[in-house]
Amino acid sequence: DVKRRLEACDAFILASPVYVGNVSGTFKTMADRYAQWWHRPSLQGKPFLCVVTTGGAWAKKTASLLSHNGYAWGGHYTGMVLESKMSHKRRVKAQMLGKDYVKEKEVAEFLRCATQPRCMTVPRIVEIYQFCTMVSMGVIVHRYGPDGAWYRSQGWMDSEGRLSLLYPAGYLPLTHRVVARGLQLLYRTVIPAPAMPDDWTLEDTPSVEAHVSVNADPVSPSPVSPPSTYQCASGDIEEALQ
């Protein structure tokens, strides 16, 4: 199960070949199935690398789409590896010289973040923006529903229904703290909170078990299997990383 493996890993790779200037349908289907991660980022702080293969163009755009999903899921972006048929001569030359085709600097940040303590990772500003935008709005608007139950189970929301932290993973320099606090105050000011039901109590919030049942993967005649481009042993990734 892709979801279980992603939640259990220390780092992950998002990969896709280019299909008509976009990610593959397999990856898009997987991303749609786990849409709840946009408001409940279960991969918070985990480093990820984007790998894209293409026969010609659109590699950077596709990598950007992959990274956008990684941000939304809470991941820490470390870079991209782009492999094109146009670069076949360079790959052959590297193999003849006995060298690695992928430059070390393209994967160095991923390897460093994957092997160091999570608390030492400095998140990017865009990651803080993504968290504050999606989670702050979720805390304000959905505090009484399954989202609120999940935030409480993570310790992200206090008893008064407010976001209780600036960012859940990594080290935040002063500038990052200012950005996070400013965004949270902004959303709290401009987004009206829903009225609390007269008879509502904290115990009325759906349990984590209810949250899981509400967000179970939809039943489909053809369930999603782990996409081949996700597997590190797949031909596309293996070829790109050699």
Automatic annotation (TrEMBL):
SUPFAM superfamilies for this protein: Flavoproteins
Molecular function GO labels: oxidoreductase activity
InterPro entries for the chain: Flavoprotein-like_sf, FMN_Rdtase-like_dom
The NADPH-dependent FMN reductase-like domain, residue ranges: 2-63
Coiled-coil ranges from the UniProt annotation: none
Organism domain of life: Eukaryota
Family matches, as Gene3D superfamilies: 3.40.50.360
Location of region: Disordered: 215-242
Entry protein name: NADPH-dependent FMN reductase-like domain-containing protein
